[in-house]
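lol ok so funny story. i was supposed to be doing the assay writeup but got distracted and ended up predicting the structure for this chain instead. priorities right. anyway since i did it might as well share w the group, maybe its usefull for someone
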Amino acid sequence: MRKLIAIAVLLTFMLLWIWGAATAGTRLAGASPWLQLVFYILVGFGWILPLRPLLKWMNANEVPDED
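and the output, tada:
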């Protein structure tokens, strides 16, 4: 159940992240190429930082039930 919840959150977050990056990227179309490069590097790697706790939680070992 943990992985199912995490996948739903992950997909929702990624859809919002991509939408936000695309929206901001279109506004930077006329900006300096260096600014665009920095923006796309940050956007390309920046998604993992907010999702790290979710991925750790999703892959955490569950304590087995004792009989």
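Residues 2-27 form the longest helix (26 residues). The radius of gyration is 17 Å.
back to the writeup now i swear
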